[in-house]
From TrEMBL:
Entry protein name: 3-hexulose-6-phosphate synthase
InterPro entries, per database record: 3-hexulose-6-phosphate_synth, Aldolase_TIM, HPS/KGPDC, OMPdeCOase_dom, RibuloseP-bd_barrel
Sorted UniProt keywords: Carbohydrate metabolism, Lyase
Originating organism: Kineococcus halophytocola
Taxonomy of the source species: Bacteria, Bacillati, Actinomycetota, Actinomycetes, Kineosporiales
CDD domains: KGPDC_HPS
Pathway(s) annotated for this protein in UniProt: One-carbon metabolism; formaldehyde assimilation via RuMP pathway; D-fructose 6-phosphate from D-ribulose 5-phosphate and formaldehyde: step 1/2
Length: 214
């Protein structure tokens, strides 16, 4: 299972400061939606230039004009971009078309979708790399939120998926056991007193639970 850091900070300078601290411990560096809205696509270029060996994930959450928005982010240096799973099939297909033209990938974000399992299967058919089974920051803040519903839906979907929404050291083992391809951790890393240590601990927990190589 890969580890993805979600950088939900607001400036390119802060994003780069964090990415330099945590890069040795993560596989994918995500630029969060508020960061891209605040700093623009140049933030993607700056992070890719600083970390050419990492997958750079632009959390565009595209809702329309899939081909155009994905093309802009890929041209800026993104390796993966998000479209909303609730967007029209034509929007998803447009983003996938742009990804194929660039040799990159699309991730469909299932945030707030009422039927994640069914839609995840449709999105896989449309050609996305994987689906993100995701509870956003507002959903996580609701009383009674539990990551377990995400894990259940990801497992049941039968397609490659990531989990995002409160991934932390106390839940990483459950996330890995669910069969997720990627664990996305935002606040558990950028909000930690020592982000590098937090990322390292998450990565070590993943490695410890992986079957030994033969
Ligand atoms: O995309 C996001 C919000 O829409 C976040 O980046 C995602 O939820 C991961 O953050 P956290 O680990 O803090 O929940």
């Amino acid at each position: 299972m890969k580890l993805q850091v979600a950088i939900d900070l607001l400036t390119t300078a802060d994003a780069l400061a964090l990415s330099h601290q945590v890069a040795p411990h993560v596989d994918i560096i995500e630029l969060g939606t508020p960061l891209i809205k605040n700093a623009g696509l140049s933030a993607i270029s700056a992070v890719k230039a600083a970390h050419p060996d990492k997958q750079v994930f632009a959390d565009l959450k595209t809702a329309d004009a899939g081909e155009l928005e994905a093309d802009l982010a890929f041209a800026a240096g993104a390796d993966l971009v998000t479209v909303l799973g609730s967007a029209a099939d034509a929007t998803i297909a447009g983003a996938v078309k742009a990804a194929r033209a660039h040799g990159k990938g699309v991730v469909a974000d299932l945030i707030n979708h009422p039927d994640r399992v069914h839609r995840a299967r449709e999105l896989a058919e449309l050609g996305v790399e994987f689906v993100e089974v995701h509870a956003g920051l507002d959903e996580q803040a609701q009383p009674g939120y539990s990551i377990e519903v995400l894990l259940r839906d990801g497992r049941e979907s039968g397609v490659p998926f990531s989990i995002a929404g409160g991934v932390k050291l106390s839940t990483i083992a459950q996330v890995q056991a669910s069969g997720a391809s990627v664990a996305v951790a935002g606040a558990a890393i950028y909000g930690a007193p020592d982000p590098a240590a937090a990322a390292r601990e998450l990565k070590e927990a993943i490695r410890a639970a992986e079957p030994a190589a033969v």
